[in-house]
Specification:
The structure is a single chain. By secondary structure, the protein is mainly α. It contains 10 helices and 6 strands; from the N terminus they run ααβαββαββααααβαα. A 3-stranded antiparallel β-sheet has the order 1-5-4.
Length: 228
C-alpha cells in the first residue's frame, strides 16, 4: 500500500495526536484506538469537509482501519507511543510523551476548534468498547458497509482484511458543498508531499507569502492588475 498523506505530510502531527489520545485513554486497546482515529476523521469530514489526519482507511472485518496506525503493534510511531501484548493477545497502547508537553504541543499544532472537537470525541467514546465502536461503523448506511457491499467482501476467520480503500468523500452526496473543500484541501496536502519528496534534505525550504497580484503574475506573465 502506498503511504498516505497522514504519513508523508502529517506524520509528526499525527504522532502527537496519538500521544494525546493515549495520554487521555491509557492502556487503550489498539482496535479501539483504530476506531477512534477513524471516527475522528469521519467527524471532521462532516464538520468541515476534510479529515484531521489524512490517513487512508481500508475495509477490514471489524470496520475501517488505517494500516499505518495498525502498525503501532510493530513499532510505528515509536517516538510517541508504545505497544504491549498481553497473554490474551490484546495489544495495548500507551503514550511515551509527557502529558503536559503533549497538551502544550497540541495547542500549537492544532487549531483551538480542532482541540475542542477532539476533546469532545474523547469524552464521547472513552467508555465505549472496541466492539461497540465497531458497531457504529457497521450500521447499514455507513460507508464501510457500502464498500463491503459494493465489493462483495466476505470476511471469515482466515480472511480479516481487504485492500478496498474507503473513500471518505462517500460521506457526501455529489452536490455537497464540502466536495470542493475536500478537493482543495487534498491538493494542498499533495503539493506539500511533492515538495517534501523532491527537496534535498540538506537544504532548508524557505517560503514567502505573496500577494494575489504577485500570484497572478506567476501564473500569467502578461498579467496586468486592474488595481496596482
Amino acid at each position: 500500500m502506498i503511504m498516505s498523506l497522514g504519513i508523508t505530510v502529517n506524520k509528526d502531527k499525527n504522532g502527537m495526536l496519538l500521544a494525546y489520545l493515549t495520554n487521555n485513554m491509557p492502556d487503550i486497546h489498539l482496535r479501539k484506538l483504530l476506531k477512534i482515529i477513524y471516527l475522528i476523521d469521519e467527524h471532521f469530514m462532516k464538520l468541515r469537509g476534510f479529515p484531521l489526519t489524512w490517513f487512508d482507511y481500508y475495509a477490514w472485518a471489524k470496520g475501517p482501519v488505517a494500516p499505518e496506525v495498525y502498525e503501532i503493534k510493530n513499532g510505528a510511531f515509536s517516538e510517541f507511543v508504545s505497544s504491549h501484548r498481553f497473554k490474551d493477545n490484546k495489544c495495548v497502547i500507551n503514550s511515551l510523551c509527557d502529558a503536559s508537553e503533549v497538551t502544550m504541543n497540541m495547542k500549537s499544532i492544532f487549531s483551538e476548534l480542532e482541540v475542542v472537537e477532539i476533546d469532545k470525541l474523547i469524552g464521547m467514546y472513552r467508555s465505549y468498547t472496541a466492539d461497540e465502536l465497531s458497531d457504529l461503523t457497521h450500521v447499514k448506511d455507513s460507508i464501510w458497509s457500502k464498500v463491503v457491499a459494493d465489493n462483495h467482501l466476505v470476511f471469515d476467520v482466515n480472511n480479516r482484511r481487504s485492500d478496498c480503500l474507503i473513500d471518505l468523500k462517500m460521506l457526501f452526496t455529489d452536490q455537497d458543498w464540502r466536495i470542493e473543500i475536500y478537493g482543495d484541501a487534498r491538493w494542498d496536502l499533495e503539493f506539500q508531499a511533492k515538495l517534501l519528496s523532491d527537496r534535498n534534505p540538506n537544504h532548508k525550504i524557505q517560503l514567502r507569502v505573496v500577494s494575489p497580484t504577485e500570484r497572478e503574475q506567476y501564473r500569467i506573465p502578461a498579467y496586468s492588475p486592474a488595481i496596482p
